[in-house]
Amino acid sequence: MAAAPRVDVRPPEPLLEVRDVARHFDVSGPWLARTIAGAPRLSLKAVDGVSFDIRRGETLSLVGESGCGKTTVARLIVGLYQPNRGQILFEGTDLTSLRTRAAQRPYRRRMQMIFQDPYASLNPRWRVRDIVAEPIRAFGLARSGSEVRDQVAALLRQVGLGPADGEKFPHEFSGGQRQRISIARALSNRPEFLVCDEPTSALDVSVQAQILNLMKDLQRELGLTYLFISHNLAVVRHISDRVGVMYLGKLVELADSRTLFGTPRHPYTRLLLDTIPDLDMTGRARVPVGGEVPSPIAPPPGCSFNPRCPFANDRCRSEEPKLARHRGGSAVACHGVEEGRIPERPVAAA
How many other β-carbons are positioned within 10 Å of the β-carbon of residue 3? Predict the structure, then answer.
């Protein structure tokens, strides 16, 4: 009897890998004022040692309070910022090591970014056809003007608009329609990877749902991979395969969406989920997020969440926890979880 064919059950190789990436900004005052006052230079640690990977075809979301470093991570990946340390690998190639435009060009064409504000991200002086066609021309993806027009028309149809809309200016569209134009522009250079920086936060709730459904449809049709940045947990739950929770420039929990929303492990993740309205009125005990996020210029020693954490002890206040995988599949940076001091607390399904 012939042997059964061997099935490779290994997970697919990641499309994108972020390894110990940090970005610090110099926020010191003017040199003369510092010299007179004897003040030191100040560095804001926007991102401070973040690591994760994204597999082809999946959506990884990053969530957290404003100022936690989500958008900085997005801008580092697409090359708008350069990291102070760490690696950003796209199919195994370290993008941070590519110093010339010619070397970066093949990889930059394969990734695009959708920005938060559809009112500010489109040139008001250009017609929509020129906005969508710009990447096609920049990367030489069409051989003639008629081919450019055909591609623009197809892209507008793909996002739920019509070819005639290409003759209009951005101010003639609603917010949701402008975001559809932004998506068409992002798709025009045929990317494989999209960084979506809060693409629905400036839109009405009903329009948000339309844009999210469009993005999920496009992902299925085109095989796209998403990094999705948001502070809206309901949106993240709807679109994500995996979720990373950021706090003060660090990743504190990383898990698949069902696990993170069902059995959150890190105290900060639990506090975030407690902010979601309990529409089913389950009566589950809820703890509001207490205190304020410390300054990223002078973060507290040890675990950066310890001033707000109800489970913090002396170790938390002196030793920084590392992101480590725990039972249930979650990767958590928490001494309390590691030591078993924080019991599991299932969250009722929304």
Answer: 5
